[in-house]
Amino acid sequence: MDRQTLIGEIFRKKSFLCIGLDPEPDRLPVHLKEADDPVFEFNKQIIDATRDTCVAYKPNLAFYESLGPGGWLTLEKTAKYIGNDHLIIADAKRGDIGNTSRKYAEAFFKHMPFDAITIAPYMGEDSVTPFLEFDGKWVVLLALTSNKGSADFQGETLDSTGGPLWEHVMRHAQKWGTRDNLMFVVGATHPEAFRRVREIAPVHFLLVPGVGAQGGDLNAICRHGLNRDCGLLVNAARSIIYASQGPDFADKAREEALSLQSSMQALLKDIPK
Amino acid sequence: MDRQTLIGEIFRKKSFLCIGLDPEPDRLPVHLKEADDPVFEFNKQIIDATRDTCVAYKPNLAFYESLGPGGWLTLEKTAKYIGNDHLIIADAKRGDIGNTSRKYAEAFFKHMPFDAITIAPYMGEDSVTPFLEFDGKWVVLLALTSNKGSADFQGETLDSTGGPLWEHVMRHAQKWGTRDNLMFVVGATHPEAFRRVREIAPVHFLLVPGVGAQGGDLNAICRHGLNRDCGLLVNAARSIIYASQGPDFADKAREEALSLQSSMQALLKDIPK
Question: What is the ipTM of this complex?
Answer without folding.
Answer: 0.96
